[in-house]
Amino acid sequence: METLRLAGLRAEELTELSHLSVRQYQRPNGQVVALLVISPSKSDRERAIPMSAELFHVIAQIIRRHREEHGTVPVCARYDLHEKVWSEELPYLFQTVYSSSQRGMSSTTVWRIVRRACNELAATHPEFANVHFAPHDFRRLFATELVNNGLPIHIGAALLGHLDIRTTRGYVAVFDEDVISHYHQFLARRRGTRPVEEYREPTRDEWEDFQEHFDKRRVELGSCGRPYGTPCAHEHACIRCPMLSINPKMLPRLNELEEDLLARRKRAVEEDWRGEIEGLDLTLTFLRSKREQARRFQRSDPVSLGMPPIPHQKPQATDR
User: Fold this and answer.
1) What is the pLDDT of residues 123-159, one digit of tens each?
2) Which end of the chain is more exposed for a tag (fewer CB within 10 A), N or C?
3) Cβ atoms within 10 A of the Cβ of 277, count?
4) Per-residue confidence band for 209, with pLDDT thresholds at 50, 70 and 90
5) Count of alpha carbons within 13 Å of 133, Cβ hemisphere only?
6) b/e per residue, 65-99, with b = 16+ CB within 10 A?
7) What's the rounded Cα separation, in Å, for the pair 166 and 173?
């Protein structure tokens, strides 16, 4: 459990740890950093995480216990419950005894140990009664502790083996006070590095120009999303502009524009105006895309998702 808590591993990654997973890395300044190499699992990518002093102590204790009992870390095989195959024999750190022989621990055994610990703890701590605690909860605690202590979330994603930072964000329990305090600290740091004159009060003309910009962004078909201080890049050919947001009320107007474009295209084909045909086809493509987008926004009726079926409880898996 300490390894799960201090390393943020998945249950299957924990069972695949071996004596060979402990490596070391020497930095340019001569400092030696202990690393824990995690075998590919869900993301099929090997990763190495630097071990804290607490995690290194836990791993060292596991290896010491193996050596005291067997003289070395025993080499044994492990059955993969997902792949349904036996692994090659390795000095796994977490082992069990089955039929008087050593075997690598399965993820099912990890779940069973965590569940049994919660039940035993409930005798002295009633708040743990009927609590369903899983190995993956340690992973969420690990992610939350990293980010709330100031570690950038993209570094946390690398330590957890997430390919998408949004996955890491879903693991982290961030509270409103943390968001507000961190954001104010960020603003204070940013303002401290910028020239003071950038934070002066705007003049009356500057403020009026700023407000007028948003009035000018209202166009016939909807609203333009171009930022303040930038001109219209498409010379008011709004139907082609990605910044245009169509007002669903203007869908009939889009149909009128499409009819006009089709008529112009028919005339261009008759006159063999090939350059005109190419431009009209491009405009029609943008128009139909904008229309489909506006129709999606127009659908405001609630969608019934139904009730999910109640899953049947599966029989408890064994190490066999």
Assistant:
1) 888 887 777 888 888 888 888 887 777 777 777 777 7
2) C
3) 16
4) confident
5) 22
6) ebeeeeeebbebebeeeeeeeebeebbbbbbbeee
7) 13
